[in-house]
Amino acid sequence: MAGVLCLIVAGLGWWQAVGFRKSLTSSLKFFVFPVIFLLGFYGVLTFYSVSQGAVDVFTWGVLSVSAAYVANFLLVGFAEELMFRGILFEAFRTRLTPLLTVLGTAVIFASVHLINLVHGASLQGTTDQIINAFAVGVMMGALRLRVASIYPLMLFHAVWDIVTADFEITQTTGTTAPTPAVTDAVEAGSTLSPVFILQVLVPLLYGLFVYWRYSKSVKAGKISDRPALLNGQTTLNPAV
């Protein structure tokens, strides 16, 4: 998928339009909180699981990742961000308001996870993942607006997936790692689990906060809310 998307973008000359450009350096600070939350939240879960003897930290969890494991998630982060916060994002942005662009791409990003039902995932698990994906999609979309570049989003997406992979709330692949005690109630139960609520509300609320800050900066004239330009055009189609 990553290769196909790259060929499309390269062939049509969309590199800059879809976000392959320099980041707004001053905006990179908006990644600090989600990184702290990510490492802190799942770090606590890992520590609790190890302390309860539910998992061997050297054979399972964040410390067990291999080069192939990391490479896989780097490719996933690259492909998904290029698709959703790159191509689709800029296509929507030429026609919709920034807020609708963020929400629209988040809805599509979340809806794609319906395919897990085809692979045997439970309805409950898929629903949980869709809700979580929407929340993360809102956060990533807001960050895309504020940072302007897709590079940091690709890296952060990969890190997010790597860290959360062993703590997946939903059972979507059938090949999940041993379940730690701290997630027993989550996996047996529902979207009302405290762990699940935190996993959804934190990125969703932070995404709305970043969007609010973005809107303030636009109104103050500090940054532009115009879609990415390509050869003087405001469309992804260089022929238009």
Automatic annotation (TrEMBL):
The CAAX prenyl protease 2/Lysostaphin resistance protein A-like domain, residue ranges: 67-163
Top-rank taxon, per record: Bacteria
Pfam families: Rce1-like (PF02517)
Segments traversing the membrane: 29-50, 57-79, 99-118, 130-151, 196-214
UniProt keyword annotation of Transmembrane helix present: yes
A biological-process GO annotation: CAAX-box protein maturation
UniProt keyword Transmembrane, yes or no: yes
InterPro entries in the record: CAAX_protease, Rce1/LyrA-like_dom
Molecular function per GO: endopeptidase activity
Keywords carried by this UniProt record: Membrane, Transmembrane, Transmembrane helix
Protein's recorded name: CAAX prenyl protease 2/Lysostaphin resistance protein A-like domain-containing protein
